[in-house]
Specification:
mainly alpha
Length: 138
């Protein structure tokens, strides 16, 4: 069984992840989604129907938001990075048997893991680690 010291060490390790590292993870995952969509759009299976147009619009919207993020100070703002990729996170992605759709879905799930799971986990670990520190000071 894991003892309390191991749990605290794991939490402190997660708490040590910097905002810049989190932003880099979110941006890299978003770039992977964009790349997967580009490959799919270049494939013969791509259809420029309503879904295709919505996907094209979602990717363009996210790219524009990420460009704005690059131009502003405080590039290590995790909330701003997550807000910039929110269209990708909330969009419906087809899981059809088309050959490129699964790669897009996997890339989107990796983005969700970075933006919606890892970033909040780091924030929570920081709060827990701060609580440990306050408790030790007593």
């Amino acid at each position: 069984m894991t003892d309390d010291a191991d749990i605290r060490a794991t939490i402190r390790e997660l708490a040590a992840v910097t905002d810049a590292e989190l932003v880099a993870e979110v941006l890299a995952a978003a770039a992977a989604v964009h790349s997967a969509v580009e490959v799919w759009q270049a494939a013969p299976a791509w259809r420029e129907d309503g879904i295709g147009q919505r996907i094209r619009h979602t990717v363009a919207q996210t790219r524009a938001a990420l460009e704005l993020l690059e131009d502003r100070p405080g590039r290590d703002d995790v909330a701003a990075a997550v807000d910039a990729v929110r269209p990708l996170l909330s969009a419906w992605w087809p899981t059809s048997p088309e050959p490129h759709a699964p790669a897009v879905v996997v890339a989107v799930e990796q983005l969700r893991a970075a933006a919606m799971h890892r970033a909040p986990a780091v924030r929570q670990a920081r709060e827990l680690a701060a609580g440990y520190d306050r408790h030790q000071d007593r």
